[in-house]
Amino acid sequence: ERDLPKHRGFVTSLAVSPDGIMIASGCDDEAARLIRLKDGALLRTLEHDREPVQCVAFSADGKTLATAAGDETRVTRPGIAKLWDVESGKLIRDFEGMVKFATSVAFAENGTRLIVGSADEKAYVFEVDSGKPLGFFGGHARPVNCLAISLDGEIAISASGGRAKGKNELKLWRIAD
């Protein structure tokens, strides 16, 4: 048992790299961190431009990390997702288009697509290589809070809900269409 590097805010999400060597943490202190599991060493801090990091996800090859960010108290600022190079810590690309804060991220279709959940009740689909928006799944009546992808990478499961009762739901949908 050991303590891992401290965060200045509350930790919002965790992801383990596919090789099991490191974890990524998202934090409301506006950063994601890459931490080596063996000794708990902080490898890098990925600053997220004054937006709390809501979710982190590794690509299947472990070379990239996606982050979703935004702040529910700043309703006029749209959410954003970012793609980072794990080895260097450099920003690869921004993914924009969410009306409200981004809540979740997941890689799909063998890492060629990034799905971004948003408080605006949609799950957005982006092409990873270009950042091009490919559309969205708008079937929810509440904020999309989390995402999961089937093992073949072709089916997304999105979950929505909120503090109000009702309309808390899971949806399965094909990413390709």
Largest sheet: 4 strands, antiparallel
The first-to-last residue Cα distance is: 45 Å
Helix content: under 10%
Number of separate strands = 15
What order do the strands of the largest sheet run in, or round the barrel if closed? 1-2-3-4
Number of helices: 0
- The shape is globular
What portion of residues belong to β-strands? Answer: over 45%
Structure description:
With 177 residues, this protein is mostly beta strands. It is built from no helices and 15 strands. It has strands at 11-16, 22-27, 31-36, 42-47, 53-58, 64-69, 80-85, 91-95, 102-108, 113-118, 123-127, 133-137, 144-149, 155-160, 169-174. A hairpin with a 5-residue loop joins β1 (11-16) and β2 (22-27). The chain is globular, with a radius of gyration of 15 Å.
